[in-house]
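Much of our argument rests on the idea that a fold can be written as discrete symbols. This step matters because it turns folding into a mapping between discrete strings. The record that follows shows the chain in one-letter code together with its fold in token form.
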Amino acid sequence: NLLLPINHHFTMGRMHGKGKGISASALPYKKTPPSWLKTTPQEVIEHVNKLAKKGLTPSQIGVILRDSHGIAQVKSVTGNRVLRILKANGLAPSIPEDLYHLIKKAVTMRKHLEKFRKDKDQKFKLILVESRIHRLARYYKTASVLPPNWRYESGSASALVA
């Protein structure tokens, strides 16, 4: 007989790690923008487009709007998320941000391995990162975010993140 506390939830573990953490930030319950926010949706969209033209990623845009302009959630003000606004204006990144950062990490790991060929731990971690890249790419192909013929190749990966 298994005795567990009443409110105990089974959480899924990380893909490549032993963590089972469930901590995350909680979004406000109210979906409407705060009453003190005087920024109009059109101004927010202009801010988003201006920051995207500077070359910032959607998450960096969200952080800047939150910290510098007092816009906690772009969706509550405009009705659309940052990436949707960028897609509507043709400013969305060619590959998704999470995939981009994984590829960037793999490129720096490969660069390190060229210098230190005997680093076995790094070699193992590179295999884990590249398997995550392949898994994420497979998801994005089925969700038709990436073209079906898109492939991750370690040789040409540095050109993707340059």
